[in-house]
Amino acid sequence: CSKCASTVLHRDVVVHLKSGCLSAVVPGSPLPPGDDSLRERIKENAETRKAWTEAVAALEETNAQKTSLEASLTELKELLAQSFAVLATLERSSSEGGSESGDSSGRKRHSSKQRDANGSSEVKQLREGIAEVLRAWKDYQIRFMTQRCKATCDQSSSKSPTACCGHEWCAVSYASLKEVALRDGKADAPSSPGYFFGYRIEPMIRFKTHGKSVRMHLGLQVLHGEHDEKLLWPFHHNVRLWMMVPSGQASGGCPLEINADTVDDRFYTKPADGSRGNGPCFSSSSVDLKALESGGFVDNDQLRLRFEVLP
Questions:
Q1: CA–CA dist 311, 301 (Å, integer)
Q2: Which CATH number fits domain 166-309: 3.30.70.1110, 3.50.50.60, 2.60.210.10, 3.40.50.720?
Q3: pLDDT confidence of 288, banded at 50, 70, 90?
Q4: Could you count the other beta carbons within 10 Å of the beta carbon of residue 56?
Q5: What pLDDT is recorded for position 162?
Q6: What's the pLDDT score for residue 71?
Q7: Backbone region of residue 219 per phi and psi (left: phi > 0; alpha: psi in -120 to 50; beta: other values)
Q8: CA angle, 141 as apex, 268 and 134 as ends, to 5°?
Q9: 141-179, pLDDT tens digit by residue?
Q10: Where is this region: Disordered (predicted)?
């Protein structure tokens, strides 16, 4: 090429020049000796091309997210319209039923039964419609909060270390906790609270006596947070706890889990203003402390744990 001195096939010269000397260069072609400025220019052109490719990919991803969001909102709007239509029909039916007063008693009973049957069907439709709306809204909210938390973690993990779905901490004074559990029947060790999918949660463990043995349970408490007004209640995510060996690797066995469907709603409802939370709930499953000790999970009187909130 007479412009950049790169090696280009004859058939590709026009394409090469139209691209600003960025394309159709023969791979590994030698450069004129001692031409540092030319080398720098070609390097800058390659970096510019790479940045342009990344920008195009980011734009395409943003456009795809926008399309997905618009589709979700459209679906939600349609479901809401259907639910309100059913509700309006139900109210109109109730109003018409209440205005009938001049019929005979037998006719009244028959009409009342018919209205009850129709009302029952309409109520069922209304409930199904509202349930579908809530499911669609929850799906959208989970997707939105997951993307938002992922972006927050990528941009500034130091400012918000618990904004994503996982949180590691060390339960210290292991021997003392075990001693208290043997004496009092139980001992709790909470972690510092953090935000998970927008919800403020305090993970914890409980050492509890089961006969002559002491076992560890997973626990958590949903706390009053900054984003409560924007979230869907009750909290409905499954959570789990992994035991970590000193090297930082998670246990190869099954983690302790709490299934949201098995938790009383009073623990997962929105905390009242002025309150800290609704109290902790704990897993029914547990692990024997002897298994933790023999498995090498207790190190320097500490137990390293990883708490996760699933989407």
A1: 33
A2: 2.60.210.10
A3: very high
A4: 10
A5: 39
A6: 72
A7: beta
A8: 70
A9: 545 544 444 444 444 333 343 344 788 888 988 999 999
A10: 92-124
Q: Which residues contact 289 (CB under 8 A, 6 or more apart)?
A: 178, 207, 213, 214, 215, 216
| Cα(166)–Cα(309) distance, integer angstroms | 7
User: What pLDDT does residue 161 have?
Assistant: 38
What is d(CA 295, CA 290) in angstroms, rounded to the nearest whole number? 8
Amino acid identity, residue 113?
K
CA distances (Å), 176 to each of 97, 180, 240, 292, 301, in order?
Answer: 69, 6, 24, 16, 9
CA distance 78 to 74: 6
CA distance 78 to 140: 14
State the chain's mean pLDDT as an integer. 76
Sign of the Cα torsion 113, 119, 122, 127 reads negative
Residues in the chain: 311
The pLDDT value given to residue 245: 80
User: Can you give the pLDDT at residue 159?
Assistant: 39
pLDDT, average across residues 201-209: 95
Measured distance CA(73)–CA(288) in Å, rounded: 48
Residue 205 sits at φ, ψ, to 5 deg, of -125, 155
Do the beta carbons of residue 152 and residue 160 sit within 8 Å?
yes
Bridge partner list, 288: 215
For residue 124 the two structure tokens come to 């069922």
Handedness of CA 245, 248, 251, 257 (dihedral sign): positive
The CB-side HSE value for 280 (13 A sphere, CA atoms) comes to 16
126-140 average pLDDT score: 62
Nearest to 231 by CA among 153, 146, 141: 141
133 phi/psi in degrees, rounded to 5 = -60, -45
